[in-house]
Write a structure and sequence with these properties.
Largest sheet: 6 strands, mixed
Number of helices: 5
Structural class: alpha/beta
Shape: globular
Oligomer: single chain
Number of strands: 6
Radius of gyration: 16 Å
Distance between the termini: 37 Å
Length: 167
């Protein structure tokens, strides 16, 4: 398996574990991780109240260039220039654009499963759970989409908890 694919799976697993821990803490309902799926299915499957639940995982970085910086990649001069320009833009506008872009991309997907939740992990250090909650009324969740619920994990470590974006 290619190392970037292994990294992607590791990040998805980590996000799923953090989400499940927060969900359990908030609801008192045990949620157990089972396995990682092939691309035609959502990323991770788990059990919630005796039923299979699939989780599609996405990471909110802002841009490809910011993802490279956040993940500790070697950056080219061109990437550094893009990052400098991005830092000049209003943070909340960029957060909303990045989040709506993920929601739009994911809404177009169809999954071979009964129940699927979308879990978006905020990986951007400049954005917080509070920033996301402040923009909640501006977030666009395209209809139709395949998700029973849409959640966001407030930060990379899951310390700030989760916010339900839909329904």
């Amino acid at each position: 398996m290619h190392s970037s694919q292994q990294e992607k799976i590791a990040l998805e697993h980590q996000a799923a574990k953090l989400f499940m821990r927060c969900y359990e803490r908030n609801t008192g309902k045990p949620i157990r991780h089972i396995w990682h799926n092939d691309p035609i299915r959502p990323d991770v499957s788990c059990m919630l109240e005796g039923e299979r639940l699939d989780l599609e995982i996405a990471h909110l970085y802002g841009s490809e260039e910011e993802a490279m910086e956040i993940l500790g990649r070697d950056l080219s001069d061109a990437t550094r220039n893009v990052l400098r320009a991005l830092k000049a833009e209003p943070v909340d506008e960029r957060l909303l654009q990045a989040l709506n872009r993920i929601l739009e991309n994911k809404a177009g997907k169809r999954y071979d499963t009964k129940r699927v939740w979308l879990v978006i992990r905020n990986a951007h250090p400049a954005w917080s759970k509070e920033d996301i909650k402040a923009l909640e009324h501006l977030i666009t969740i395209p209809i139709p989409h395949a998700f029973e619920k849409v959640w966001i994990l407030g930060d990379m470590e899951g310390k700030s908890g989760i916010v339900r974006l839909y329904p």
